[in-house]
């Protein structure tokens, strides 16, 4: 079963007036993983889709949704999959790809049948991002050894982290989708600080591996009109092109970033120094 909901884009002037419930309604994505289902959120930020697939005893198939007006899901789209659970299978047009935790699969435009399945008794959790695509690129698995790894931050500033670039143009050919995974080391809690915006593309964050009972405060909004949303494990949030996207947790955690828009330049950022934030 494939379920979906829809989010309109919000302009920054309107967002200044949002309270807690309105911020969560417009930007937070909850209930990504429901047993035996695929849950998707279609957003008007670059027509980006964020979702989760949780196969039960039977495999679950990615079906087209009404917002796409297409015969099959990837008729005019590309897909990124990152497993954040136990080992699982992604089946693309009959070809099986086995994904361990924190491994990725890029699925190119034109792939007609995509489904997700368990391997043994473990429970895989497949985090999904999808963007419109104007060309076909080959489907390819990106394992841990294939990632482009960058070490950033330090213990002094509580932001020592490992960035794993998975579905990026320096690793695998894509149309516009870019995805990666950042791991905060023990004792470190800040991500993406100094904060930045990039007006040429939107972004989505997915937080996971957060210890039970802990929380993350995700900061968003214009650099001089910031807001925050408290988030829990296995929740995602949409980040408009005009918004910063940064967070701090009550313990360390991991998160997946996904982007789409005008270019594929990972370093395309308009940085805002900490003392400039309001």
Structural account:
The chain has one domain: Jelly Rolls (Sandwich). The chain is 4% helix and 45% strand. The protein contains 2 helices and 24 strands. It has helices at 12-15, 20-27, and strands at residues 2-7, 28-29, 37-43, 49-54, 60-61, 77-83, 88-92, 95-99, 104-107, 114-118, 126-132, 140-142, 148-152, 161-167, 178-184, 190-191, 195-197, 201-208, 216-222, 225-231, 235-239, 246-249, 254-261, 270-272. The strands form 5 sheets. A 7-stranded mixed sheet has the order 1-3-4-11-6-9-12, with no helix packed on it. Strands 2-21-18-23-15-14-13 form a 7-stranded antiparallel sheet. Strands 5-10-7-8 form a 4-stranded antiparallel sheet, with no helix packed on it. The longest helix has 8 residues, at 20-27. 41% of the residues are buried. Its cofactor is Zn(2+). It comes from Fulvivirga marina.
The CATH architecture would be: Sandwich
Number of helices: 2
What's the count of strands? 24
Structural class by helix and strand composition: mainly beta
Share in helix: under 10%
End-to-end distance: 43 Å
Strand content: 35-45%
Write a compact overview of the structure shown.
The protein is mostly beta strands. It contains two helices and 24 strands. It starts with a strand and ends in a 6-residue tail after the last strand.
Provide the fold topology:
Blueprint: E1 2-7, H1 12-15, H2 20-27, E2 28-29, E3 37-43, E4 49-54, E5 60-61, E6 77-83, E7 88-92, E8 95-99, E9 104-107, E10 114-118, E11 126-132, E12 140-142, E13 148-152, E14 161-167, E15 178-184, E16 190-191, E17 195-197, E18 201-208, E19 216-222, E20 225-231, E21 235-239, E22 246-249, E23 254-261, E24 270-272
Parallel strand pairs: 1-3
Antiparallel strand pairs: 2-21, 3-4, 4-11, 5-10, 6-9, 6-11, 7-8, 7-10, 9-12, 13-14, 14-15, 15-23, 16-22, 17-24, 18-21, 18-23, 19-20, 19-22
């Amino acid at each position: 079963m494939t379920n979906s909901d829809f989010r309109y884009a919000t302009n920054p002037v309107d967002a200044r007036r949002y309270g807690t419930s309105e911020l969560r309604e417009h930007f937070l994505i909850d209930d990504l993983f429901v047993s035996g289902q695929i849950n998707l959120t279609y957003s008007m930020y670059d027509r980006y889709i964020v979702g989760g697939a949780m196969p039960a005893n039977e495999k679950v198939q990615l079906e087209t949704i009404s917002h796409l007006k297409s015969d099959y899901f990837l008729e005019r789209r590309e897909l990124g999959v990152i497993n954040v659970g136990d080992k699982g299978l992604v089946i693309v047009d009959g070809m099986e790809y086995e994904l361990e935790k924190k491994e990725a699969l890029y699925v190119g435009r034109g792939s007609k049948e995509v489904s997700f399945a368990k391997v043994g008794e473990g429970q895989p959790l497949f985090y999904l991002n999808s963007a419109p695509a104007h060309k076909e690129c080959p489907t390819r698995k990106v394992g841990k050894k294939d990632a482009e790894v960058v070490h950033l931050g330090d213990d002094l500033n509580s932001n020592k982290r490992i960035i794993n670039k998975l579905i990026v143009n320096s690793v695998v050919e894509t149309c516009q989708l870019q995805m990666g995974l950042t791991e905060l080391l023990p004792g470190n809690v800040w991500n993406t600080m100094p904060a930045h915006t990039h007006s040429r593309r939107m972004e989505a964050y997915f937080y996971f591996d957060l210890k039970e009972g802990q929380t993350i405060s995700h900061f968003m909004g214009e650099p001089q009109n910031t807001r925050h949303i408290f988030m829990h494990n296995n929740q995602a949030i949409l980040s408009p092109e005009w918004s910063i996207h940064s967070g701090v947790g009550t313990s360390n955690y991991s998160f997946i970033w996904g982007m789409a828009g005008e270019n594929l330049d990972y370093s395309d950022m308009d940085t805002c120094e900490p003392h400039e934030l309001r």
